[in-house]
Amino acid sequence: MTDSPEKRKLARQRLRRMRALAKLRKLQEETPAKSAAQPGVEDPPSKATAPRTPESHDRDEKRQIQIDALERDVAELSRLSEPGDATAEDIERIRREVEELKRDFYSHLDSWQRLQLARHPQRPYTDDFIRLLFENFSEIHGDRNFADDAALIAGMAWFHGRPVLIVGNQKGRDTKQRLARNFGQAKPEGYRKALRAMRLAAKFGRAIIVFVDTQGAYPGIDAEERGQAEAIAYNIREISRLPVPIVVTITGEGGSGGALAIAIGDRVLMLENSVYSVISPEGCASIMWRDSTKAEMAAEALKITARDLLELKLVDEIVAEPEGGAHTDYAETARLLDPVLSRALDELSRLSPDELLKQRFDRFRHMGQFFA
Fold first, then answer.
1. Average pLDDT, the chain
2. Does residue 43 sit within a domain?
3. Checking phi first, is residue 340 left (phi over 0); if not, alpha (psi -120 to 50) or beta?
């Protein structure tokens, strides 16, 4: 009795997947094992900042493409097979192997690779977190001085029955949206809008939740004419004095003073594949080596990843992401962030305004003292 065309197709797909898994394992074995860094012990500069070779780039790219293709094919295999089919067990085994390969790949990313994930165009932005985590959001517009900056979102909402203020960067999904929101790079009116909303929250005793995802403040001449540097400095001073809990989450790229102008918080969280830095690796490479192609070397030297910053005590907690990055599953990312935000607000709500302000001042005052 001959097999049906669908069964033969399924068998051919299984064979291709097994061959792809074998190739992936071979690539994995060729990748040099990374030695675990010991706390307090620095690698020699030549090793710590050495850029990856073109061969390693190609190998990583091939592995990622193979893993993505395997995921799609396992889903197709599952769709074609029946629950009681003899092939179901084989398909489940292949699925577990693919998950293991994916977990291993994404757990050994270097700083530059994590930066690429932080900049992924499909990464969740502030409006996605508002939709998934909060209720009855009411947006606040304008700085009551010049204009409304769409690069920053601000508004009141409810979080688990608690009234809160939300402030966050918004980059936009397509070209039209990105131009309208200035690629998430705020101008002075954006920072003044954020401060106006934060003061309103402080007036009514509402906690503030901030989502940061920006390369930095907008560097255009019009922003400079309207006092970009003054707006950032003024925000930092005034936000540090607000007597309500402030929880900041770096969701993508936290760049320079443009991020810090809204990121003065009592708790600073980072998503697993986000980055936070005083300057972009490309900018650092252009200044230090007059060569922007050394951005990977700069990314390693700047210590921009969540793990690096947690070790330096510049952030408080790392929030896990779904395997493959936050862009693969918005709902799961929000589910993982939800209890961390809730716990942070509960802890901070127990403190008096004076205790909050003292703790916040001490926190930022003592940052970086190990360099002195």
1. 82
2. no
3. alpha
